[in-house]
Amino acid sequence: MKIIGLPALVGSYDNYIWLLVKQEMVWVIDPGQAQPVLNYLASHSLNLAGILITHYHHDHVDGIAELKKQFPAARVYGPQKTPNNLIEQRLVDGDEVSLFDDYHLKVIETPGHTYDHIAYYNQQDLFCGDTLFGAGCGRQFDGGYDAFAKSLLKLRALPDGLNFYSAHEYTLSNLKFAQFADPSNVDLQNRIATTHIEYPQPLVAPQSTLKLEKATNPFLRFDQLPIQETLLARGAQNTPESLFKTLRDWKDHIDQKGYPAK
Ligand SMILES: [Zn+2]
User: Fold this and answer.
1) What is the pLDDT of residue 262?
2) Which domains does the chain have, with CATH numbers?
3) pLDDT of residue 15
4) Which residues surround ligand 1, an ion (CB under 5 A)?
5) How do strand 208-209 and strand 163-165 relate by DSSP bridges?
6) Where does Zn(2+) 1 bind (predicted)?
């Protein structure tokens, strides 16, 4: 099996649509656009087996209708709570989806970015949608900060060795904030020095590993020193919800206003 990240909505949302390819069959995760997927399938003579959805946002679901039109036999799986009637098979925490004979993904509910968000994982791979990004995480829309913090800690409890695939390529800008929030982190310095992003080239390797994210992503480290101390000094209370919200608000503020002058 091969896993390929197809760039989509380049320049606006900078998504990856992940394709899982075995022989002539393909599963896609979060097709926010149909055309990049259709082009890839046509040029490689592939067939669409099914679609997995992580949450309701349009940049993750807008390609479903066209893909279903071209491949009516493809099955569409998504969260129980997602308000989208193109989803045929509804998933809750602990469910398993069999993509190929020897490749299955488990569902883990990760509300926070949105109230309906789920991620998919097995012993090799983690597809975390907009819950986590390389060196960052999604914004809190309607899932709540407390739920989001708990979801991040749930993902942090998964094995280090997992290959990491998120739904967007925001790593470089996330690394700038990570460096600002966690300036003494040596693993983070090494990551910044060795990261080369080729987006919008298709990606034929994982974006990252969960081990690297645990070591360098501030949104998996908000309750650990030294970030915890920084957040307490910025007014956070010592709870996962408050620490996470203080960190997320800090990044949202910088995203809007830019970094403060030194
Ligand atoms: Zn989203």
Assistant:
1) 65
2) 2-257 (3.60.15.10)
3) 98
4) 57, 130
5) antiparallel
6) 55, 57, 113, 130
